[in-house]
Amino acid sequence: MSFLPNSQLHTGGIIREAGNAHDYKTGDWRTFVPEFIEDNCINCMFCWIYCPDDAIEIDTSGSKPIMKGIIADHCKGCGICAHECPPAKKGKSALVMVREEK
Ligand code: SF4
Ligand code: SF4
Q1: Which numbered atom of ligand 1 lies nearest the CA of 95?
Q2: What is the mean pLDDT of the chain?
Q3: Is the pLDDT of residue 13 over 80?
């Protein structure tokens, strides 16, 4: 790791503490956001597995995890969850990307 001489500025692009995504609110610059349609969800957890951030809320208190929704503070609107969400209920997916109302 290198630092600029005589400065407190750190070199960019370095994650100094692993697993710190939950500590930062990074979901305020997206254009699209996933809409969760609970009736179409089969709780396959693909969205949780593929989300590159800490933006899928699940309930693990039961014998199987349950999808609860999107954590807006962390969702960047990348759409990966909606892409991976299977159209399992009569061809309908539980996650659909929609333009966010600002
Ligand atoms: S990927 Fe879709 S069906 Fe699977 S848990 Fe997430 S929202 Fe539910
Ligand atoms: S849009 Fe991207 S960041 Fe937001 S919940 Fe889906 S996969 Fe995660």
Answers
A1: 7
A2: 88
A3: no
Which protein residue's CA is at the shortest distance from atom 3 of ligand 1? 41
Q: Residue 46 has what DSSP assignment?
A: H
- Ligand positioned closest to the Cα atom of 77: 2
pLDDT at 28: 81
State the CATH class of domain 21-99. alpha beta
Total-model pTM = 0.83
Ligand 2 atom index nearest CA of 47: 7
Burial class of residue 50 in the structure, from the number of CB atoms within 10 Å of its CB (0-12 exposed, 13-18 middle, 19+ buried): middle
Question: Across residues 75-101, what is the average pLDDT?
Answer: 95
What is the Cα–Cα distance from 55 to 3, expressed in whole angstroms?
31
